[in-house]
Amino acid sequence: MSRRLRIDVFFEFICPWCLIGKRQLEHAQVQFRSRHPDVQITTVWHGVQLLPQLPVQGEPFADFYRKRLGNADAVTMRQSQVQQAARAVGLTIDLSRIETMPNTADAHRLFERASELGNAAQREMLLERLFAAYFLRRENLGCRETLLAIARSCGVDTDGVLDCLKGDATPFEGSPDATSGVPSFQFDRRVTVIGAQPAQALLAAMNEALKESDRERQPA
């Protein structure tokens, strides 16, 4: 009988720790597969809109973080922490160059709909492209035209997603299992890891979930 491991990831596009956590998960999966080549891994991504109160046009990025953290020095310190963690997983993120803190409701609706319509390769491509749009290309994820262009570049049939791009800041509902702590990783819905933890921590959680599953499968 084949063995399976399901991973549910709860994320927000504008959270740098979610992109960093994605890279950590990828590293953990490589190690896990080398040790358990017989286990089929299924990863399901669930969007979480952390800031539904943002206006549809978003807010200036610098102003948002100054208000959130209190002063420019605190913003600089936080950005330095993020950049250091990003470099450790091979990412170059320059938060100081981002112009807009967007309302991400439509971006999440786009990804959710495209995930239903497309295949696994398209889902992964779109997920990466949406993260890159914000953190690497400084594109506005609250802009309908930008989202449609991204969808087309990933081979998504835009006719199938037009109606989910509301453009009116209607909050994204998402999964009922979502929490405000992102990134969050659930392994077989048995073991949960919250935050952009090191790959070894995620690997340990994967192994623990697999052991629990194996114990349950053993005859009494």
From TrEMBL:
InterPro entries: DSBA-like_thioredoxin_dom, Thioredoxin-like_sf. Residues 7-202 form the DSBA-like thioredoxin domain. GO terms for molecular function: oxidoreductase activity. Gene3D superfamilies: Glutaredoxin (3.40.30.10). It comes from the Bacteria. It holds the Pfam family DSBA. Signal peptide: none annotated. This is DsbA family oxidoreductase. It comes from Pseudomonas fluorescens.
